[in-house]
Design a protein that fits this description.
Elements lengths: L1 H7 L10 H10 L1 E5 L4 E3 L7 E15 L5 E7 L3 E4 L2 H4 L6 E14 H8 L3 H27 L2 H13 L6 E3 L4 H8 L3 H13 L3 E3 L3 E4 L2 H8 L12
Length: 233
């Protein structure tokens, strides 16, 4: 677990702890692996946990009363994830889904709260992290409300694939996943992708994208940032 202590010291909250505190956290962490498609917690449940994502990829998503799934943002390693329920004893506002096989370290509230509480600076930094997350969600909601689907889709492609001109990449996001990420339908995603192709920005096949003009995608995306980023958590 000493390797985990070395990783934790580079993160905002954990860096304010003493080395002994971090070693204690590392020793008391529960290591778990998850398969793609599993859920770590569900919207509506109380989840008194903190986890540290060391490998893989996670995604916060919400389900509307009508049953429509909406991706909030993705989380890439290495990254801590703080369960909302720890702070207010209320149900989780979103579900935490595993997007690719992942490795995490988990602490219960009973274990992590007394250790973090030893350092006022660490507690303050948790507030800073939560405010950063709130601002990220605000930017995402702003994008849904005020930016067109084409701009949101362009931003998604840029954030997920980080393309350069002439680059080809497997189509590892389905139309439904893209639609869930930008708040639209898979039919409109398909139509918009083909518009991008007609305008020379991308080439599309069943198996891959080829990015032909990143600059045009950037112009189309404009300031529509954090629609799909994640890093997120």
């Amino acid at each position: 677990m000493n390797e985990l202590e070395l990783v934790l010291r580079d993160f905002l909250v954990f860096s304010k702890l003493t080395k002994d505190d971090r070693i204690e956290l590392a020793n008391r962490a529960v290591r778990k692996t998850y398969k793609k498609g599993e859920f770590i917690c569900w919207q509506g449940e109380t989840w008194f946990k903190v986890l540290f994502l060391s490998a893989g990829g996670l995604e916060w998503s919400m389900l509307s009363p009508q049953g429509k799934r909406q991706v909030v943002f993705r989380i890439e390693p290495p990254c801590p994830v703080w369960g909302h329920s720890i702070f207010d004893n209320e149900p989780m506002p979103a579900s935490l889904e595993v997007m690719e096989d992942s490795e995490v370290y988990i602490w219960s509230a009973e274990i992590i709260k007394p250790i973090i509480s030893r350092r006022v600076e660490a507690v303050w930094d948790i507030s800073a992290e939560l405010v950063t997350m709130m601002r990220k969600v605000r930017n995402i909601v702003y994008g849904f409300a005020f930016h067109q689907v084409s701009g949101r889709l362009a931003r998604l492609l840029l954030d997920v694939y980080h393309p350069s001109d002439g680059m080809s990449t497997p189509r590892d996001l389905t139309l439904e996943q893209m639609a869930n990420s930008i708040g639209t339908t898979k039919e409109l995603v398909s139509k918009t992708l083909h518009q991008f192709a007609d305008e020379g920005m991308i080439e599309i096949s069943r198996m891959q994208f080829v990015f032909s003009d990143r600059e045009k995608l950037e112009l189309l995306a404009g300031d529509d940032k954090d629609i799909s980023s994640q890093t997120h958590g």
